[in-house]
Amino acid sequence: VQLVESGGGLVQPGGSLRLSCVASGFTFSWYAVSWYHQAPGKERELVAAISSVGGSTNYADSVKGRFTISRDNAKNTVFLQMNSLKPEDTAVYYCKAHGAWGQGTQVTVSS
Length: 111
Known about the structure:
- By secondary structure, this protein is mostly beta strands.
- The chain contains no helices and eleven strands.
């Protein structure tokens, strides 16, 4: 099982980023996928999750209306579109599926 995140970077407040997580080694379409983030000195927190076929999503209150999780099962990929980014969104973002974690991608929101 392998998950590889990409798409992080440095962005100004109010900007956007799109994270991707490509999965391999398991039947991706069978599993729900989640995005988490972890800021320095804080615990890892759930940001968003999507069901196996994408019909159901849920979000942390802090990102509702700003972030959108989606998936493309044909490409074994899940996305996190992040809009109206705030400095408090700064963290390492991880995807999780089938009990496995990716290596994370750093998102920094700063002017």
